[in-house]
Amino acid sequence: MTLSGAATHAAVVVGAGRMGQAHATAWESLGVPVRWAVSPRRRPALDA
Question: What InterPro entries does the record tag this protein with (predicted)?
Fold first, then answer.
């Protein structure tokens, strides 16, 4: 990987991290715990 390629990769990773953080915050503002949004398999049954 070239130096510029590494810099681009780092920028993409940082950008994705920020987007993920904003997405999680949006879910929290809707009252949805982030862990439910991230892993639906752990979501308790709504009719339980």
Answer: NAD(P)-bd_dom_sf
